[in-house]
Amino acid sequence: MIDPHRYCVIMCGGIGSRFWPYSRSSRPKQFIDFLGTGRSLLQMSYDRVLPIVKPENIIILTNEQYATEIRAQLPDLSEEQILLEPARRNTAPCIAWAAYHIHAKDPQASIMVAPSDHLITRETIFEKAILEGFRFVENHHALLTLGIKPTRPETGYGYIQVGPKAEGEIHKVKTFTEKPRLELAEVFVESGEFFWNSGIFLWKASTVIEELHEHASDLASTFDNANGLFGTPDELEFIEKNYPGVMGISIDFALMEKSQNVFVECVNFGWSDLGTWGSLYDNSPKNRDGNVTQNCAVMAYNSTGNIFAVKGDKLMVVEGLKDYIVADADDVLLICPKAEEQRIKQMVNDVRLAHGEKYL
Amino acid sequence: MIDPHRYCVIMCGGIGSRFWPYSRSSRPKQFIDFLGTGRSLLQMSYDRVLPIVKPENIIILTNEQYATEIRAQLPDLSEEQILLEPARRNTAPCIAWAAYHIHAKDPQASIMVAPSDHLITRETIFEKAILEGFRFVENHHALLTLGIKPTRPETGYGYIQVGPKAEGEIHKVKTFTEKPRLELAEVFVESGEFFWNSGIFLWKASTVIEELHEHASDLASTFDNANGLFGTPDELEFIEKNYPGVMGISIDFALMEKSQNVFVECVNFGWSDLGTWGSLYDNSPKNRDGNVTQNCAVMAYNSTGNIFAVKGDKLMVVEGLKDYIVADADDVLLICPKAEEQRIKQMVNDVRLAHGEKYL
Lengths: 360, 360
Description:
Two copies of one chain form a homodimer.
Chain A: E1 6-11, H1 41-49, E2 58-63, H2 67-73, E3 82-85, H3 91-105, E4 110-115, E5 119-121, H4 123-139, E6 143-148, E7 159-167, E8 170-177, H5 182-191, E9 194-204, H6 205-215, H7 217-224, H8 234-242, H9 251-256, E10 262-267, E11 270-272, H10 277-283, E12 292-301, E13 307-319, E14 324-329, E15 332-337, H11 344-355
Parallel strand pairs in A: 1-2, 1-4, 2-3, 6-10, 12-13, 13-14
Antiparallel strand pairs in A: 4-9, 5-11, 6-9, 7-8, 7-9, 8-10, 14-15
Helix pairs in contact in A: 3-6, 3-7, 6-7
């Protein structure tokens, strides 16, 4: 039986600029069937928590501009389950809003916060881990984050160093470390003490609100002003008026790196943030010729190691291309070596300077 | 004053498979504004002869499937000026048809036959050359072809070896040679005796009909059966019924390489058959970065020597690509090194085998 006091908040406001132009502001990554399964990453994230929380306890947090897309992709959601931020203010404000919103409705609530655009495999392990996490935070004043056992010295992720054991796989957090250099990442992985920061959080609504008062008091006091409004027709008006004025800050920086009550559950399911073309390539099935194709037919000659991501049914005919990204969507075509993908950000900036928002 | 007995037949039935998918059977090369001038190659071919023949004496020879496109691109043409072949039978049958058609209307007619998809520069030299050619064929029983002074040992063209001088720049033809190997082409160019075969012909209608009787008697007797029908409403019915049954053969093979009355006018205007991506690259203006772009905006990083041909207004963002063809149109995207363009033909065949005519 699913505990009716358990909630899941799916963060769905990202703009997906790293996969431009295949994903772009009008159609970011979470809305794309990135792995060719017939379900978008958001839909997969939603499906994944259905065995864990009641469907009516799933809340989608997103930007206003994606409301239509959310309703289309998740038609079972009621309007009360979609929280639309009127402006982008990073993760702390929207997580705070969700906590206040849920707490007003259910003071006993415990919440899992999950990204909408990551890949998770071995879902039975995932499910067991989340249930263990819920039990822990329901019995402790704890902010719990999930740490993934690293499989390689990845320099693109944040790492969590574990401290003393609390119970089961759950430990006090010793340190958070942002993307390390390779030498450091190698030491991290070898030590066995460091885990990848997954961006999946669990806590009681009351716990996170209390911690916000302590470590992000401006944010907390803004939402305190709305007590009595959450769940009423006035909530939206309050948000429209006050949300754009709050400071944009990440939940990691606002809370996780400051609080003394932060724990990590060390887990070992398959995970990728799919944050780069490289990770998408690594996590996608390859054709016989070693290419990854998204949404297109490909005839590849002397071409391997490429990722072809095309919006709309298209035929790609490619000769003599190795280890490139080819991304085609609407009115933009990007061709870039996989090894140079970190340059795409600069290219997007150049496109903005030259053409404004037209192609973004 | 323009001589009212002079005609121009523009051959416009090509399917443009060499530029697939940028040009394709539904929109072959001659209909594309290949050089970004605002006029298609066909329109440029039409414009080029307006100073030489009366507009009502310009005949377009094409395949039935392009009738709509021709009318759209050349709205000044009357229906009588468009000859629609019901089947593709190479150049000899359609040139024969045009000769009979024009001769029935004007037994004194002289005709220039010109491709619709070549590039010609230095048009005043072109104009002078054509006028000299008309004068020659009007005064001699001659099949005249224009030979272009070669500027490099091109292996993709046919060559004409000149014989004894007739008058001015006009000589008897000694030999025709198809695409030579490079060593041979180098000898050709050095000798000064060889000229590129331009596919531009001049002759009196009566001369070419007489020569057809001698060297392509089957073809001539087919059209002889239609005497009395040309220019009447019955002409079309005759063509629909009989044209598909004639043997497909080129005018070079049927006539030029057989007749004793073949002459070449040696000319020196700028010319390219734009028959390959390489020639299109060579003949097109380059961006600052050494790329050629057709119909698109390009932001190129560490990329040079490429040709980007895109149907529809599109932004290309390219990093680390050198000497490639990128051709994007509708539902096909081709990426191929310029040096491998001779392989595109095989790719098109593979596409046909795998997908039928859908992408051709």
